[in-house]
Write a structure and sequence with these properties.
Length: 378
């Protein structure tokens, strides 16, 4: 069966909306990708489909939500969660700008074999510019664009993506992109390759093979591995140069985290999953507990600074900060001496102080976690 949806950005007038059709058997991740194309978003940020009592998203494995049940968007099919016409839910994109869309299932109709799905039927206006500051930022940007004599006009035009026009919507152009992506967006069109027995190189087999190589062959292999990827290059750099290299790599990963909150240009994309992925990569490459702890602390401090700069974010953002802060506390408490406590105590306390007045019980939770430090008296 085919689902016909109408999606409308909330809290904006005149309305920005699209009407489109998809196969009911696709996953919610495929629906997300379809929405990104029909709306004109750039798929920079996290998302969720809000069903009230539960959400469908890409759950954070390390820091699962304690607020409500989450289903994995790459595993859940539309047909299991949209049983009838007229059902409406919220699709949320970008937890920073917090774009809330109403997603309404208008019709359930038979498939037309002459059509290629998904297909866009109608719509009005362009999606807002990414990272423009949410509804208020978009409205201010549109106002400035309508006033060529405005003192911020040239700066605003220079910041916008090339060709951006808030009134632009080209249905034919959207459908051309959807058609080119149909194999990814409509799994029924994917031709299955013949099954092949997986080939796996175990650590034991690799070790045996390496032991049989001549020194020159081993050197050549490691040198080629060094050239293959940035991660391998950094791993070998750490192995050869030691702590000096770790300190240098730390700055690279600090910048990766900083760019998600305070990039050199524009607004932070606030892709917390990307920032946490950077921390995991750093841990894997360096295998340094102390430097990894520093990176986790930096993540929390930068998140708190972001909130103090731009105002309250949302519960999910604060949950992520709390869990990372708790991870730092747990690492310090595992130590037999108070060395790490002495090193981080002032910074941990400063984070608590800097969250006074923030919403969602953020300050209180951090204060409670701070009190869990085993070297805190009283």
């Amino acid at each position: 069966m085919i689902y016909q949806f109408k999606i409308t950005l909330k809290d904006l007038k005149p309305a920005i909306w699209r009407r489109f059709q998809v196969d009911s058997s696709i996953t919610f991740d495929q629906l997300h990708k379809t929405i990104q194309i029909v709306m004109g978003w750039e798929d920079y940020h996290l998302y969720e489909f809000d069903f009230g009592k539960y959400a469908i998203t890409l759950p954070d494995v390390e820091f699962p939500s304690e607020r409500r049940k989450e289903f994995h968007a790459k595993k859940e099919q539309l047909v299991r969660h949209f049983p009838k016409e007229g059902q409406a839910i919220d699709y949320i994109y970008d937890y920073g700008d917090f774009w809330v869309h109403q997603l309404l299932l208008e019709k359930i109709i038979p498939m037309d074999e002459s059509k290629v799905y998904p297909i866009c039927l109608d719509g009005k206006r362009s999606a807002p510019q990414e990272d423009c500051g949410g509804v208020s930022g978009h409205q201010r940007m549109v106002e400035i664009l309508s006033l060529p004599d405005h003192p911020e006009y040239e700066e605003t035009v220079g910041w916008l993506r090339e060709g951006y026009d808030p009134e632009h919507f080209d249905q034919a152009e959207v459908n051309e992109i959807l058609k080119g992506s149909a194999l990814l967006l409509n799994p029924k069109n994917i031709k299955k390759l013949p099954a092949m027995k997986p080939v796996k190189l175990t650590a034991a087999k690799l070790k045996k093979h390496l032991q049989g190589l001549a020194q020159s062959e081993l050197i050549e292999m490691i040198t080629e591995c060094y050239k293959l990827s940035k991660d391998t290059e950094q791993y070998l750099t750490v192995k050869v140069l030691g702590e000096e290299a770790i300190a240098s790599i730390l700055e690279v990963y600090r910048k990766k985290i900083m760019d998600e909150f305070f990039p050199a240009r524009g607004f932070g994309k606030l892709r917390l999953a990307e920032a946490k992925k950077a921390i995991r990569e750093f841990e894997k490459i360096t295998q340094s507990k102390s430097y990894s702890l520093e990176l986790k602390m930096f993540y929390v401090e930068t998140g708190v600074e972001f909130t103090n700069t731009y105002g309250d974010i949302d519960e999910r953002f604060y949950e992520s900060m709390e869990k990372m802060y708790e991870s730092v506390i747990e690492s310090i408490n595992k130590e037999e001496t108070d060395q790490l406590f002495q090193e981080y105590q002032q910074r941990l306390y400063a984070v608590v102080q800097n969250t006074l007045g923030m919403g969602w019980g953020f300050h209180d939770q951090l204060a409670y976690l701070y009190g869990e430090l085993k070297w805190i008296e009283g």
